[in-house]
């Protein structure tokens, strides 16, 4: 009771002022047409602004959910694409009508591009069918190869890793070679093992060759920036400008090969 009296003594004048001001405002708006229209228009305007801000906040909070949904849909479309490629291939067999590849959408939770051997962490693991050795792609390029996996996460050896090698094809020339990073420019891979008699042009497109169980054929990698024949070598040294900017990506797709275990056992002589 004493505290209430102290409160009213200290803030009674302010409360009385606010109460009388509110009553006065009500009477002015209630009995004056002009002031009532001003009040209605103003309240509608500020209500609209508040509603717009609230909706934008809700949309922002849903962005992650929308991005996940789009990634799932993209994974389904990629899988359907490779099914169609398998069907349309002149070399297709009844068993290959169901493509051996499907895609698992994943979010990149850790990435680096400036180390000699860069690694990436994804939010998908063995619970999602991910095992070491599987390839990882982007919507516009190759990201790397799964190195290890736990139930919910996987560690990927980036293409920007001097120990990562990817088999690629020069689409116009039909020749294939091996791409590797030298640890320098994060936008450039070096393609080697291409015979020097192959006619290469600046701007030629490089895609995955499909000569492994890791990546399907035709995944875009980059374009030829320049090339030369090193002294005493019988192979071209080709600089390939990557399509993908690995510093600006946060979504990836893990390539699952349904014949992975069978191929692994065959290659390991098990």
Could you outline the blueprint of secondary structure elements for this entry?
Elements: H1 2-31, H2 33-61, H3 63-88, E1 101-110, E2 117-122, E3 135-138, E4 141-149, E5 154-161, E6 166-170, E7 175-180, E8 188-195, E9 205-208, E10 220-228, E11 235-242, E12 251-257, H4 260-267
Antiparallel strand pairs: 1-2, 1-12, 2-5, 3-4, 3-12, 4-5, 6-7, 6-9, 7-8, 8-11, 9-10, 10-11
Features of this protein?
270 residues; alpha+beta; Thrombin, subunit H; single chain; six-stranded antiparallel beta barrel; 12 strands; 34% helix
Briefly summarize what is shown.
The chain is 34% helix and 31% strand. By secondary structure, it is of the alpha+beta class.
How would you describe the overall organization of this protein?
- The protein is an alpha+beta fold.
- It has two domains: 2-61, no CATH class; 101-267, Rod shape-determining protein MreC, domain 1 (Thrombin, subunit H, Beta Barrel), CATH 2.40.10.
- 34% of the residues lie in helices and 31% in strands.
- It has four helices and twelve strands; from the N terminus they run H-H-H-E-E-E-E-E-E-E-E-E-E-E-E-H.
- It has helices at residues 2-31, 33-61, 63-88, 260-267, and strands at residues 101-110, 117-122, 135-138, 141-149, 154-161, 166-170, 175-180, 188-195, 205-208, 220-228, 235-242, 251-257.
- The strands form two sheets. A six-stranded antiparallel barrel has the order 1-2-5-4-3-12.
- It is elongated and about 95 Å long.
- The N and C termini lie far apart (87 Å).
- Mean pLDDT is 79; it is low at 86-98.
């Amino acid at each position: 009771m004493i505290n209430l009296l102290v409160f009213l003594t200290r803030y009674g004048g302010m409360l009385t002022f606010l109460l009388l001001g509110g009553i006065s405002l009500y009477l002015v708006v209630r009995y004056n047409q002009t002031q009532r229209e001003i009040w209605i228009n103003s309240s509608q305007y500020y209500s609209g602004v508040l509603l717009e801000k609230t909706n934008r906040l809700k949309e922002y909070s849903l962005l992650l959910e929308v991005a996940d949904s789009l990634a799932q849909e993209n994974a389904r479309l990629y899988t359907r694409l490779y099914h169609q490629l398998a069907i349309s291939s002149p070399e297709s067999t009844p068993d290959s009508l169901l493509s051996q590849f499907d895609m698992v959408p994943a979010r990149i939770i850790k990435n680096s591009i400036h180390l000699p051997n860069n690694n990436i962490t994804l939010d998908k693991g063995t619970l999602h069918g991910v095992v070491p050795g599987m390839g990882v792609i982007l919507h516009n390029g190759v990201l790397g190869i799964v190195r290890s996996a736990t139930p919910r996460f996987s560690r990927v050896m980036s293409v920007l890793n001097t120990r990562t090698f990817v088999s690629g094809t020069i689409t116009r020339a039909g020749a294939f070679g091996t791409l590797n990073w030298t640890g320098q420019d994060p936008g450039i891979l070096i393609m080697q093992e291409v015979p020097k008699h192959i006619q290469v042009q600046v701007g030629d497109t490089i895609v995955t060759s499909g000569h492994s169980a890791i990546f399907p054929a035709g995944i875009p990698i980059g374009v030829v920036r320049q090339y030369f024949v090193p002294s005493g070598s019988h192979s071209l040294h080709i600089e390939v400008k990557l399509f993908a900017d690995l510093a600006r990506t946060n979504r990836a797709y893990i390539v699952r090969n349904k014949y992975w275990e069978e191929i692994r056992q065959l290659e390991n002589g098990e």
